[in-house]
From TrEMBL:
<feature type="binding site">
    <location>
        <position position="542"/>
    </location>
    <ligand>
        <name>L-glutamate</name>
    </ligand>
</feature>
<keyword id="KW-0813">Transport</keyword>
<feature type="compositionally biased region" description="Basic and acidic residues">
    <location>
        <begin position="916"/>
        <end position="927"/>
    </location>
</feature>
<keyword id="KW-0472">Membrane</keyword>
<feature type="transmembrane region" description="Helical">
    <location>
        <begin position="587"/>
        <end position="608"/>
    </location>
</feature>
<comment type="subunit">
    <text>May form heteromers.</text>
</comment>
<dbReference type="InterPro" id="IPR001828">
    <property type="entry name" value="ANF_lig-bd_rcpt"/>
</dbReference>
<dbReference type="InterPro" id="IPR001320">
    <property type="entry name" value="Iontro_rcpt_C"/>
</dbReference>
<dbReference type="Pfam" id="PF00060">
    <property type="entry name" value="Lig_chan"/>
</dbReference>
<keyword id="KW-0406">Ion transport</keyword>
<dbReference type="InterPro" id="IPR017103">
    <property type="entry name" value="Iontropic_Glu_rcpt_pln"/>
</dbReference>
<feature type="binding site">
    <location>
        <position position="547"/>
    </location>
    <ligand>
        <name>L-glutamate</name>
    </ligand>
</feature>
<feature type="transmembrane region" description="Helical">
    <location>
        <begin position="828"/>
        <end position="849"/>
    </location>
</feature>
<dbReference type="InterPro" id="IPR001508">
    <property type="entry name" value="Iono_Glu_rcpt_met"/>
</dbReference>
<feature type="compositionally biased region" description="Polar residues">
    <location>
        <begin position="857"/>
        <end position="885"/>
    </location>
</feature>
<dbReference type="GO" id="GO:0034220">
    <property type="term" value="P:monoatomic ion transmembrane transport"/>
</dbReference>
<feature type="signal peptide">
    <location>
        <begin position="1"/>
        <end position="20"/>
    </location>
</feature>
Amino acid sequence: MEIANRVILLLLLSASIGVAQNSSRGGAQEVHVGVILDLGSLVGKIAITSISLALEDFYAAHQNYSTKLVLHIRDSMSDDVGAAAQALDLLENYKVETIIGPEKSSQAIFISDLGTKSHVPIISFTATSPTLSPSSLPYFVRATLNDSAQVSCIASTINAYGWRKAVPIYEDTEYGRGIIPYLVDVLQEHNVHVPYRSVIPPSATSDQITKELYKLMTMQTRVYIVHMSSVLASTLFIKAKEVGMMEKGYVWIITDGVTNLIDSLHPSVVESMNGALGIHFYVPKSTELNNFNTRWNMRYQIDNPTDPPSKLSIFGLWSYDTIWAVAQAAEKVGLSNATFRKPISKQKSTDLGALGTSSNGPEFLKEILQSKFIGLSGRFDLSDRQLTVSTFQIINIIGKGWREIGFWTAQNGLSRRLNKSKSATIYSSLLPDLNPVIWPGESIDIPRGFEVPASGKKLRVGVRSSGYQQFIKVEKDEITGATKATGLSVDVFEEAVKILPYAVPYEYVLFGSPEDTSSGSYDDFVYQVNLKVYDIVIGDITIRYNRTFYADFTVPYTESGIAMVVPVRDSVNKNTWIFLKPLTPGMWLGSIVFFIYTGVVVLSLEFLGNNKNVRGPIPRQLGIMIFFPLFEEKEIMERFLSRIVMIVWLCFLLVVTSSYTANLTSMLTVQQLQPTVNDIQELLKSGEIVGYHRGSYVKGLLEELGFGRSKIKPYDTPDDFHNALSRGSGNGGIAALVHEVPYIKLFLAKHCEAYTMVGPIYKAAGFGYALAKGNPLLGDISKAMLNVTGGDTIIQIEKKWMGYQNDCQNVGPITGSSSLTFANFRGLFILTGAASTSSILIALIIYAYKKQHRSTKVMQNDNKQVGNNRTDGENNEPQDGNQGAVTEESVQFGAGSEQVCDSNPHISPATCNDSADIHRGEPRTVL
């Protein structure tokens, strides 16, 4: 009955298309085109209606064209051999210039080989398998998208929601298998693991599908990627709903092969897909598309009167645009002299070698590839032998329809709106830049994508006891035999697992015995993940370069580095001369030099100012020079410059004495501890013995540094370290303990007063967890550990297991001498030196100026006196009977003024007294 309906449908379509063709210009050159589709499939029915409308629209818009397409439609009956037979018939008997179709990728491979042999282009708008490569099939043109174009969109969506595992469910056909290698590769690039692949034969029964779904339910992964035909997908989702896999916690992502037909599927099928995400090819809206959609719906009902109403899909638009591209190419080529050259062959006509070759095939193919226009489906460009990747729409199936939640483009990735810049796009596992989704089970919470089934396999976590039980302590339950682990390393791991976006069931598995902390080296312990004994090993495991060859490490959760623990001693000897300790010898010397310099400057300033208080014998002047810097005596100092120098000096003296007093008090009251060894090279030179923790890689490090085996001693517990350090290297102990920083802090928390840490002397990466190489949990656990160690959680864990060991003052570097140095007061020395030096320079300039002024005035008075004497001699007239008298104006201030007064009775006593007073400086102010 179905075959009869298909035959009737084919006759009706041929008649309608023939009428459409005859309605065009009758004198046009006919170009024969073959069409091979599965006329019983939904895609085939949609495409045939679109093709018939495309012919009408094209030649209605191009009535002056000299060519017209004559379509020869064939039904493949959904059979690969049948499709090939129809292609041979079209090439042999109808000499078609091109074949549109077939519908399936498996059919397209063989028919494309026929096209290569006959130089006839094969154009398919439905064959999406990546195995159809244009490089190996030169006459194959894909008027649709390659399936691999959507894998980046799928991976970005999975990554945006933070899922780390996904299971592809695909049909066992060329179409289903073709996408898988590309999908897996892109998922791995996004750190998404594929633990299982579910392959369903296209002929699978409902029971077989149900059995496979039950198998998936026993696994932990809850994220599924469905890639199959719409018929098989319909059965899959109906059964998934029946078995309870469309409930809360499940994630379904459907590829565009099904999503592009979502509007044409039966409502019951769409309802069974509720909550699923779909990748949908985005078609820009336009007035032409709206008008065509109305016409298409009417024509589809005419072409398929017995079928339920359907909606136009992207396959119908691509078939429409394909007809326009072929018709335009035919007009450009002309094909008026198209011929098929048959090879000379004695074989039967069914022999493929007897196929003729089209003379215009290469040129026709070239014109088809140059087709570029804006069609109903958007930009239609076949220059790359297939449509280029444009935009995908991500939809959420709800009820009997769907709604848009976002877009994906190769340039901007995921975004809520289409024309959003890349800089504004958000990629976050917690807040994806998409509209809210209603997930299966009508849940609005983002599924974790990972559940714990009853029979699920747990993560095997390797643990071993440590010499420092604060990090990890392992015990065996005597009743159940289960392994229990506690400690800082365990708490950090458990807190990190809680933060993971999916559930990770785990169990602790003991390495060695719980009592023996030295059973096997840490290298052997880490190597177990490479042997698949454990999935992950935790504890106080140092991240080392040699271990990265067989394991991957998480980020460290402790401080890094290797340092020394050495005894401390009081660095200050509280003896008779401790009062000299607050200042260094350089500081003492500088202070004394500036003390003397300041006294000399002040004495010189007063001396230049003719201060009688500073004159006298040299011993007296030395006493005054010492007296000035100690006491500011205003009655003794007369010059303003002297007082400025003293003010600056007293400020300097105040600061230095205050600092001296504070430092001396600290030395007398606070214990000044210093390490007995400051550098590991000191231990090498002196031949001291050092210790290390037994089983640690530090032993090899010490040997590399040059320590002989006789100079290295292993110890097991912190008490052993304390006893060995307290005895010292000369008494059978050790001079220093070389250990990792986290262990040293634990040790100093208990023995803080007697020891200190020196270093780190060697770099190390800290403690981390080791996983097998390629384990997909690595990235997620590392991110979760960063969350733990970057907040208050790690502080509370450290307080719980280590107490307040960071309060120990001996942890970290210890400063050297606390004496005050010359450099500490460099600014004060510069200030007081500048004040003293500038003052003495100003005083010298003033003194030189006054001295020169006095000399000039004396010379002028002497010249005047000589002139007066000559006049008196020539006139021979004594003045008032007093020859050679000196006037009051001729008296000069200076050292000889008193002699002038004594030898010249003509000068009045008052004038001499005034001159003497001025000379002594009593009535004047001196700068």
